[in-house]
Amino acid sequence: MSLEYVEKISPDQIAKMKNEFAKNKAFQVSQVLPGGKKADAADYESQLSKFPALKAAVNETLSAIKEEQKQLAESAKKMGIRTDSIALQDVNGEFTAAVTEVVLEGLRHIQPPLLDKKDNSYALAQ
Questions:
Q1: How many CB atoms lie within 10 A of CB 98?
Q2: What pLDDT score does 34 carry?
Q3: Quick one: which of 54, 72, 73, 111 has the fewest CB in 10 Å?
Q4: Three-state DSSP class for residue 115
């Protein structure tokens, strides 16, 4: 699924992300940061500020997912299915953090891979 969204990213944007990872080295993805501190969405936002092309890709993916969800809700309504329980909500930025992880995972599977994964908590430039 992650590759489906990343394949829509332009080669120019991929090159920009590669340069960002060459400069910034790593993006930490984890539920718990070193020292036992719980990760929060602000940590992702803080990191994304150092990766403008990655942030743009995350925002584009967020838009695509929201549009897919809107279409799902419209289809459900036509079938008489209640849609109040399928609405997307970005509670404290958690949805954005999850989409960031989807994009990062997809970048591991493009050809050639842009990222490598180190011990389940870092995405590193390949």
A1: 14
A2: 47
A3: 111
A4: strand
Contact 3, 102 (CB under 8 A): no
Averaged pLDDT of the chain: 82
- Dihedral sign, Cα of residue 15, residue 16, residue 17, residue 19: positive
CA 31, chain centre distance (Å): 15
Name the residue among 68, 55, 69, 66 with its Cα closest to residue 97. 55
pLDDT of residue 75: 92
This prediction's pTM? 0.80
**Locus of tokens 């997809």:** 106
Q: Does residue 92 or residue 77 have the better pLDDT? A: 77
Helical packing angle, 52-78 and 94-109, nearest 10°:
110
Mean pLDDT of 42-61: 90
Tokens of 52: 């403008």
Cα torsion 45, 48, 52, 57: sign: negative
Alpha-carbon gap, residue 83 to 60, rounded angstroms? 24
